[in-house]
Structures are given as C-alpha cells and as structure tokens.
Amino acid sequence: MYGKAFAPEYQGALTTLSVNSSLDDVLAAGTERLRAAEQAGEHGEAARSGLAVAEAHRRLGQVREADLAWKASYRAARDAGDVAAMAWALWSGGTLARQRGALPLAFRLLRLAADLGERGGDIVVRGYSLAGLAETGRIQGDYEAVGRLHEQLLAEARRRGEARHTVWALEGIAQMHRNSGDHDTAYALFEEAAHIAARAEDRRGHAWALRGLADIVSVRDGDTERALALLTEAEESCRAMNLSGALAYNHKMRANVCYRAGRYGQARRLYEQALGEFRAMAEPRGEALSRLGLTKSLARLGRDRAETAAELAELAGILERIGLRHAREMVTRAQSELGVGPAESPAESPAGARARTAR
C-alpha cells in the first residue's frame, strides 16, 4: 500500500512544501528561508533550504543558478558537519550534470552522494543517488549494467511503500523495455506507474507515465488521437508545476507522434518548439533528439539529401561524444530510413567532418 507522495528534497523549514508545489513557489520560499538562515549563521538550515533552491532552478532549466546553488548547499553542509546534507547536495549536482550531458561527472558525483548517504545514515538520499546512477546508465543505453539496479531499487521502494520512487523505477524499467521493442511489457509498467502516481497525488510522476503511455499507444497501436490526448493531459500538470524539462520532452513526444502519423509539417513545428526549449535550458540530450526529429521531418518535406546526410552525421558525432549509445543507434536507423549515409562530400560542413571523423 502506498501513501501520499512526498518530496524529501524539501527539507528543514521547507518540509511543508508539497511534491506538487509550483517550482516558482518552491524557489521563492527556498530563497527566503536561505537568506534568513545565512543571516543567522545557521549552516545546516542554509544547506537544506539551498537544496530546494538548487532543485527548483534545475527543474526550471536555469542551469547556471542551479550549479551555484548546489555547490553553496554543499559548502554550508560541510561547515555544519552534516554528512547527509552533503550527500543531498551532491545528488542535486549529479542530477544537474546528467541533465547537462556531463555523464562522467554525473557518475562521479552520484557515487559520492550514495557513499555519503550511507555514511550519514540517510537511506533516502542513498536510494535517490543509486537511482540517479541507474538513470544515468539507462539514458546511455547500458541496459544490461543498470537493469538489475533498477529492479533492486523498485523492490526496495515497494517494500517501503514509497510511491514516488516506485513510480520512477517502474518508468525507468518500462523505458528500457520500450527501447528494446517489448511494447506490451512497457505499456503495463507505464500503466502501473500512472495508477500509483495518481493515487499518491504525484503529478510529476503521473505526467511522465502518461508520456510513456502515449509513446506506446502511438508506436504499437497507431492510435494518434489517443496518444495526443494523453500528452495533453500530461501537459496540464507540467504547466501547473512549471516543469520546463518535462514540458519540453512532452512537446518532443508530441512531435514524434505526429511524425509517425505522417503529419510532417506539424511534427516540424513541434520539434522546432522543443528544440528551442531544450536550448534555453542547456539540455544537450533533448536538443540532439529534437534536432534528429526535425532533420527527419525536413527530409520528408523535401529537404536536400546532402544537407540531411550532413546533419545526421553531425548528430552522430554529438551523441557519441555525450555517450548516448541508444540515441546514436537512432541516428543510424534514420540514415537507413531516409536512404542517406554519412556525409562524404568535400564541401560538407566542418561540424559534419568532425562528426564523421569521431566515428
């Protein structure tokens, strides 16, 4: 039995904040409490409130501010001798690093966070940090390495009745099944995640689950209208909480659904919208995937084949440098689908040449 979802990253005087609190409200409350704690010389409280500030900035796509905030939280926790708070700050920094595409840094910070969480006796931050490691490996496409960790974390979350973490684990496992072609299992897991999130009033988790369901409904069933309806429902929660990243991924998925349905003009506009959103928050993975979808849409709308080939070659190099193996395979499939190979013309762009060399 799962209780109501809660947000353990909202700590100290901010524990009254809900998992569904608007990020603008979280940022305002966290900033106010942080200033008061700093003026009073309360390092522990400054660390805890600073964590909420860092997470609000990160989820709003404000990368520079988030980077400054998690580091300040870590310093305050260190000054207070609070090992668990140090772990939470490192978890936030590692999560931000993954969002920015700095995967080696994400692994390093999240491993440190898990170790400090264990030393500090905080099983929640240890679990969140291990989950962060699992998610980082998953988005790289290293399913064999992180699949067992996802299952382990799911079992632990179920045992403790933690709805939010259970939903996260279910969605991660579902995504791996979806990317491996097991759409039926993926659908069942996304559906379970959606039910648990709804009962636990976890709007963020519910929105991500609906996005996953929309993807399966589109690719497996070809039901474009139902997929778009699910995404519209998810978008309402994203906007209510001002979830910039989740909203951008929602728009990219809407573009995917339209592309699969042959609505290439609509897909192009949505990919362009998502691309702008990802660039605004310096999210290289989402940016690259949006560029891939946009390139495919433009090709379907009659773009020059050489330009398409050069763009795909450049994207291949970008994704290899980030370390996203599954996404890199998507580029290979796009090259096959569109009947274009890596750009080989002497007149290709320098970026395209670098991408070809990187392969």
UniProtKB/TrEMBL annotation:
Q: Where is the composition biased (Low complexity)?
A: 341-359
Q: Where is this region: Disordered?
A: 335-359
**Species of provenance:** Streptomyces asoensis
Q: Which InterPro entries match?
A: TPR-like_helical_dom_sf
- What protein am I looking at? Tetratricopeptide repeat protein
Q: Which Gene3D superfamilies match?
A: Tetratricopeptide repeat domain
Highest taxon of the lineage: Bacteria
